Amino acid sequence: PRRAPLTTLATAEVDGRAVAVGGAPGRRTRVWDLRTGADLGTLGEAGRAVAAVGHRAVTCSSHGVVQVWDLRTLRGTPLPGPPRVGAVALAGDGVFYAWEEGMFLAAENLADGGSLPLRHPLPSPGVSAITTVPGAVVTAWWRDGALRVHDLETGERRVLPGHTGPVYTLASEDGTVVSGGLDGLIGIWDVATGASRSIVSPCAVDALTVGAGRIFACGADGVTRLFDLGTGEPLGGLPTGVAHAIDVHDQTVLVGGADLRVWDLRGRTGRRLRGHAGAVTAVALRGGRAVSGGWDHTLRTWDLRTGAEVAPPVTFPWPVSALAWHHTGRLAAGTSWEVVVLEPSEH
Q1: How far apart are the C-alpha atoms of 202 and 196, rounded to whole Å?
Q2: Whole-number Å distance between alpha carbons of 24 and 243
Q3: What's the pLDDT score for residue 245?
Q4: Could you give the CA distance from residue 221 to residue 239 in angstroms, rounded to a whole number?
Q5: What is the dihedral of CA 98, 100, 102, 108, to 10 degrees?
Q6: To the nearest whole number, what is the mean pLDDT of the chain?
Q7: Looking at residue 114, what is its pLDDT?
Q8: d(CA 161, CA 60)
Q9: Cβ atoms 29, 23 nearer than 8 A
Q10: Domains (range + CATH), the chain
């Protein structure tokens, strides 16, 4: 049968057993035992997104339908609402989602499957991204460029204006929200006080992540720019090319794009890790090791101290499209409609 690329991947632990949950557009999401590789069953289609917290998983289908699944029984419950969901975020026991064509932000308490969703009216459709901070959900919008803070206790909504065009991406850390979009502005927002700062980027911001007290903004011009999260001070740029994947751990940044590059932020030095024969589409950091996968159908493992490959590349019949670490040290790699589980090395 024809196989589809694995485009969504998450890991969880069910009754002490490590599992992987993976899906692709038009295909049912599957659950695997990470230790044995056994197929544990299927969930609904998750072409847009899949996430897991505790023994529950949330799938968002290509048609925008969100379902909450109990991974112990593999039974799912659709979340009520219009048929298309534009954005989803997980935090603690809650799943937050907004409808692409609807007028509500909804919150479902995953700790109590029988509870009704909380509903916050929205001024217009078109939510492009969601992130969470303690006690609130923050949404971004395609049309007006505003961010909106939805207080989960009072239901009140505050508008954070600033962007002049669509907002593509949000990230958050310790109550601070970072936003980026078409207008090239990077917004840094203290959600509790409403205070904000704007950083001007010379081009659209396609992706953001926050780590090690820094903002990493991947620009459409192929430069990943660094800023201090607390002050907004620019900390230089990394010539990454257009980034497909980025991961940050402590003082190390790994970026996959046309090639693979790693930076030590303490010395502000970067180097290329040579080995892939095409675009790098998935990266993951753990300790002193880096793992990367790409369109050349290979999975490669690197020593970050020396920059050398520490094992022969693992070759798959399809490109590597997703990587996810489990806390046990196992690595789940998505390639086509398969999940390959790698055990941690003893060396």
Answers
A1: 20
A2: 22
A3: 76
A4: 9
A5: -20
A6: 78
A7: 42
A8: 29
A9: yes
A10: 8-248 (2.130.10.10), 249-347 (2.40.128.630)
- Greatest distance between any 2 Cα atoms in the chain: 56
106 vs 207: which has the higher pLDDT = 207
Q: Vertex 55, ends 52 and 56: CA angle to 5°?
A: 50
CA atoms lying within 13 Å on the CB side of residue 132: 16
Distance from C-alpha of 90 to C-alpha of 97, rounded to nearest angstrom: 9
Q: Is 287 helix (H, G, I), strand (E, B) or coil?
A: coil
Sign of the Cα pseudo-torsion (35, 260, 128, 105, in order)? positive
Nearest one of 147, 172, 167 to 158, comparing CA atoms:
147
The first and second tokens of residue 312, run together, are 């022969």
294 token code pair: 């790409």
pTM of the model: 0.54
Torsional sign, CA 143, 147, 152, 158: negative
Residues in the chain: 347
Q: How far, in Å, CA of 337 to CA of 22, rounded?
A: 8
Taking the mean position of all CA atoms in its chain, how far away is CA 117?
24
